[in-house]
UniProtKB/TrEMBL annotation:
One of its GO terms (cellular component) is cytoplasm. It is an enzyme of class 6 (ligase). This is Adenylosuccinate synthetase. Its EC number is 6.3.4.4. Transmembrane segments: none annotated. Homodimer. Belongs to the adenylosuccinate synthetase family. Gene3D superfamilies: Adenylosuccinate Synthetase, subunit A, domain 1, Adenylosuccinate Synthetase, subunit A, domain 2, Adenylosuccinate Synthetase, subunit A, domain 3.
Amino acid sequence: MPAIVLIGAQWGDEGKGKATDLLGGRVHWVVRYQGGNNAGHTVVLPNGDHFALHLIPSGILTPEVTNVIGNGVVVDPAVLLDELSGLEDRSVDTSRLLISADAHLLMPYHVAIDKVTERFLGNRKIGTTGRGIGPCYQDKIARVGVRAQDVLDESILRRKVEAALEVKNQILTKIYNRRALDADQIVDGVLEQAEGFKHRIADTGLMLGNALDRDEVVLLEGSQGTMLDVDHGTYPFVTSSNPTAGGASVGSGVGPTRITVVLGILKAYTTRVGSGPFPTELFDEQGAYLAKQGGEVGVTTGRARRCGWFDAVIARYATRVNGITDYFLTKLDVLSGLETVPICVGYEIDGKRIDDMPMTQTDIHHAMPVYEEMPGWWEDISEARTFEDLPKTARDYVLRLEELSGAHISCIGVGPGRDQTIVRRDILA
């Protein structure tokens, strides 16, 4: 049985939680492989209940699925405990959640540095969530990070925190004129929090390998999206990890040859949160329409999402970078009621037409979208359950996106509910 990667193919917020939830009943493991509580998934159950998940994989809402916070994730202990408590208060069984021993813990000094740095940058800020994700990843790469397994040995934890604060306090006090942080207070706080999750710490890479040997299906769930990847996104306006499919192997401990399906999630239009280039962004009433109809507010941050038309250049790029085999197209219903629906098929940069992602940061900032227009549809498509149920113009739109993107659109979302999905091809067949 396969390991499946589920990846956002735009700038995140494409509806990955819906896709994970759809597959949840047919997979045995769901693994979050990167990012932190700077991202989120929304899942809507058949009874209408909404769940906003931030660190915990979407499979937590499906009984019998084992959920893993992988080694590539950075975990804020306080956020984790709050999320667990919130789920348990709503009678969700969280006993099948595991945390990789190698996942890094987000510490109070990461949050402090993230916030003061963004304020210091002013107009040059990256647009982070201020949750300390970037500084935590910096410490990981600098080999001075604190891992989940460190809470099992107080002496190691204390040495790491004290060593980190020797530098962090210098930065906070001498550069940003902030108060120094106390090592004992941080260590005591983390150890107290650890009482609520240390029983979940495990060698998850080994467990996932054994699960695949038993022919169990493993779903590797990314957060954010392709264009926020630190290597392949619109740098420097990116996240601090690798949401792309290659990051799934690194962030989970599952070998790349065991991945057989890469499912990309695409919105029927495009959104992005935070700063950075966005060639198809709309600043008029049509952008406001997409934002209102699509409920475009960040799950984790509450920030309004910038909205624009579908960008086929980005979709083709995502197909290539991730090796996408299938697409799940979400929020097609949001486009109902439009007379025409534009699609960006290429860019014009300094008078020259290009059809692929620009190589330089300068060019992507200067890119102007080249549109073709498709006829719209007026029908309410939220009750459609087969492709043939859709109006012809909606079907034509989907087929054109499929042609431009370079991968089969196997599933189509026509509403937020778990059952509001059209399946054109079973990716697990």
